[in-house]
Design a protein that fits this description.
Its EC number is 3.1.13.1. Keywords: Cytoplasm, Exonuclease, Hydrolase, Nuclease, RNA-binding. It is found in: Cytoplasm. Helix content is 29%, strand content 29%. The N and C termini lie far apart (70 Å). The protein is built from 17 helices and 38 strands. It folds into 6 domains: 63 residues, Arc Repressor Mutant, subunit A, CATH 1.10.10; 63 residues, OB fold (Dihydrolipoamide Acetyltransferase, E2P), CATH 2.40.50.690; 67 residues, OB fold (Dihydrolipoamide Acetyltransferase, E2P) (Beta Barrel); 196 residues, no CATH class; 164 residues, no CATH class; 83 residues, Nucleic acid-binding proteins (OB fold (Dihydrolipoamide Acetyltransferase, E2P), Beta Barrel), CATH 2.40.50. The longest helix is centred in the last third of the chain and has 34 residues. By secondary structure, the chain is an alpha+beta fold. The chain is globular. About 2% of the residues have low confidence.
């Protein structure tokens, strides 16, 4: 073919180019081609030839011969007419199926769904495509039912009942025969499983599997949230019985196998309401003038053996869940709050990373060891913060105090040493942590320091006030040494010479930000007078983001720009395929420091022990599957936590109907504005239908609604006055109305 996209002096015909394109993809079925490469490989260098090629690519994609993997990137479509997929149910009837081979979702209309439920594994056939219509499929067989249950309020009639559910994936309520009610009464919150959905019936038929209690009761509502996300709200008796059999005693023989650090000054630092202390820190000066800092982690894997009853339950849960007013632990209470918890003045088995640092917090040496420790004191963050603030100016050596005892039975048992007694150690650790932190940011770690809203709750679970949790030096001190321990053990396995394959390890990975969202962010912040270069090396982009986050501190647009920046970030997850952690700017990172509440840390402990004993690399497939499960459970737990916060926000605002508050536009969608009240961070919605002074259009790129006629604009970050109109606890929804000047 000649240089001009002509053949034998003639312009290339559509049929010929189509054949060339089909051959290109057919001969390279696994290859993804971007548009420039297609032009280059087929030597298309005239404008008409390129336009013809673009038209043909569109036709081939419409015919499902090829698929567009991302904008202007194409590959051969290897999905057949009939394939297996996972069904995703939508309340609006626009259901989709996601092919098991990871292809793009395909639309399934309700009439073609065979009443499949969300998460069902189905066999699907593609329907003939209509010109200029999206591809559609039809479910021909349900291969495997998802074990999903639904949560809602029972409405019991004379001969039958319904479950009224807020689940958005169901357009209709669930019909329950009287014999399948399990004693439920009208107004009870219940968990229901669908047993059948006859082909021509409007409503699915279900049976009650559990009655949670009377609607509106705090425990009932918290258990409802857990059940809604398929999370456990009770502990199996068999697992608790197994935990009761564990001998917590630490034998002389066991101590003989470990590094004995019981005499080293050691303490835990945790939130004031914590009961499971899974990390402790020790510090002492060595003879060669270095600081020996030990990060000691509860040795859960010593007590929880792989494949045991307790282990299987921990795998299933994968994480503890932290709702507003309670913790749903990953391990039975006897283990997480007693045997494994690093309680003060008790000998405990730990797995420790022991560092030797110089005065500039440079690690000169480190080792990993199974240890035995004895914590001298249980600190709250507030106590440590007070010591750090009281002794800012003075030399730490001035504050070594004699053992003047005071009793504090809630925290430490009798004879508690006052916080001041540990001033030297705390000040030294803080100084070292600050140097570690500064170096981390120099290397491109991103500084998202956001305050979190928390509720003060009375003994009935009712929210009576709001406070903001801000990370201060005490929190950052602990965080920095945990990061150092996690990073160091990850490097010890992952960082190998080029010719040596690293052994399998679950890493905590974090991908690069979404490029399009970064470009959008950089365009968005210009109107506030800020700049960000969205392209360049990882380090350059991270440094640009950090500069932006520093520049907006204290400005009225801070919250808004932080929110938009966070949206550009990918979610961190677990994987045996290490791609590094972008947000922390670490090439190797894992989770080692919280095995009481996270299963990946238990896996890491087991593998580190195995490798230290000279064991072979573990099965990557097995651990990758576990990583995917743990990532999914982490997301579910986070969703349940958010739902519990949302519930408490609605409950907190329910006695403030009609009151007016100042708020900030925290979200903009095509159906309205989200507004967050400034004084308590309770978020509600102003529906678009209530903005009746104009016809408003949604501008997605600029996060705003603008009026066609009067050109009034509501943008993310705007300050507005709102009135509380409605507080719907069932839907966990607050409705606000704008109060116009």
């Amino acid at each position: 073919m000649g240089k001009t996209g002509k053949k034998g002096g003639k312009r290339l015909k559509k049929k010929e180019l189509a054949k060339m394109l089909m051959e290109l993809f057919q001969n390279n079925p696994a290859e993804v081609y971007d548009i420039k490469r297609i032009f280059r490989d087929l030597k298309l260098d005239t404008h008409p030839a390129k336009l013809l090629c673009m038209d043909l690519l569109e036709d081939l994609a419409m015919d499902d011969y090829i698929k567009e993997t991302e904008k202007l990137h194409f590959r051969l479509n290897t999905t057949g007419q009939v394939f297996e997929a996972i069904f995703n149910r939508k309340a609006n009837g626009k259901n989709t199926v996601t092919p098991l081979d990871g292809g793009e979702p395909v639309l399934v209309a309700e009439r073609n769904s065979l009443h499949a439920m969300g998460g069902d594994k189905v066999k699907v056939t593609l329907l003939a495509r209509r010109k200029h219509h999206v591809r559609e499929a039809q479910v021909v067989e349900i291969l495997e039912r998802n074990d999903k249950s639904f949560v809602g309020k029972l409405e019991v009639r004379k001969d039958f009942a319904f479950l009224l559910t807020e689940d958005r994936t169901l357009a209709n309520d669930i019909f329950i025969p009287k014999k399948a009610l399990k004693g439920g009464k009208s107004g009870d919150k219940a968990v229901v499983k669908i047993t059948e959905w006859p082909e021509h019936a409007k409503n699915p038929i279900g049976k009650v599997v559990d009655i949670l209690g009377q609607s509106g009761d705090n425990t009932t509502e918290m258990h409802s949230i857990l059940a809604e996300y398929g999370l456990p709200y009770a502990y199996p008796k068999s697992v608790e019985d197994e935990a009761e059999k564990i001998d917590p005693g630490i034998t002389a023989e066991e101590i003989g196998l470990r590094e004995d650090l019981r005499e080293v000054t050691t303490f835990t630092i945790d939130p004031r309401d914590a009961k499971d202390f899974d990390d402790a820190i020790s510090i002492r000066k060595t003879d060669d003038g270095l600081w020996e800092v030990g990060v000691h982690i509860a040795d859960v894997s010593h007590y929880v053996k792989e494949g045991s009853v307790i282990d299987k339950e921990a795998v299933k849960r994968a994480t503890s869940v932290y709702l507003v007013d309670r913790t749903i632990p990953m391990l039975p209470e006897r283990l997480c709050n007693f045997i494994c918890s690093l309680r003060p003045n008790e000998e405990k088995l730990t797995y420790s990373v022991v560092f030797k640092l110089d005065d500039k917090a440079v690690v000169k040496d480190w080792h990993l060891a199974h240890t035995v420790i004895k914590s001298d004191r249980r600190f709250t963050y507030e106590e440590v913060q007070k010591v750090l603030e009281d002794h800012k100016e003075a030399s730490p050596e001035d504050y070594k105090m004699p053992g003047d005892h005071e009793a504090d039975p809630n925290f430490n048992g009798p004879d508690v040493l006052p916080a001041e007694h540990f001033a030297t150690e705390l000040i030294t650790l803080n100084r070292l942590a600050k140097q570690l932190r500064a170096r981390r940011f120099e290397h491109g770690s991103i500084n998202f320091d956001r305050s979190e809203v928390r509720f003060d709750i009375d003994d009935k679970g009712k929210p009576i006030g709001v406070y903001f949790k801000v990370a201060k030096d005490a929190n950052k001190l602990v965080e920095e040494f945990m990061l150092l321990a996690n990073r160091t053990v990850a490097e010890s396995v992952g960082k190998q010479p080029k010719n040596k394959k690293p052994k399998t390890l679950p890493y905590r990975v974090h991908d690069l930000p979404d490029q399009d969202k970064l470009i959008n962010l950089s365009e968005f912040i210009v109107k506030f007078g800020y700049k960000l270069k969205p392209t360049g090396s990882k380090e350059e982009v991270a440094k640009g983001l950090n500069k932006l986050l520093t520049d907006i501190q204290g400005k009225k647009e801070q919250n808004l720009i932080e929110t938009v920046s966070l949206r550009a970030m990918m979610k961190a997850r677990y994987s045996t395929h290490n791609i590094g952690h972008y947000g922390l700017a670490f090439d190797y990172y894992t989770h080692f420091t919280s095995p009481i509440r996270r299963y990946p840390d238990v896996m890491v402990h087991r593998l580190l022990t195995r490798y230290a004993d000279g064991g072979r690399s573990a099965s990557q497939d097995k651990y990758e599957e576990l990583c995917e499960h743990c990532s999914a459970m982490e997301q579910l737990a986070a969703s349940a936590e958010r739902a519990s916060i949302k519930y408490k926000q609605v409950e907190f605002m329910s006695d403030k109907l009609g009151q007016v508050f100042e708020g900030t536009v925290s979200g903009v969608t095509e159906f309205g504005l989200y507004v967050e009240i400034n004084e308590n961070k309770c978020e509600g919605m102003v529906p678009l239908r209530d903005l009746d002074d104009d016809y408003y259009e949604f501008d997605e790129r600029n996060y705003c609604l603008w009026g066609r006629k009067h050109h009034h604009r509501y943008s993310l970050g705007d300050t507005v006055q709102v009135k509380v109109v409605k507080a719907n606890l069932e839907k966990k929804q607050l409705d606000y109305a704008l109060v116009r000047e």
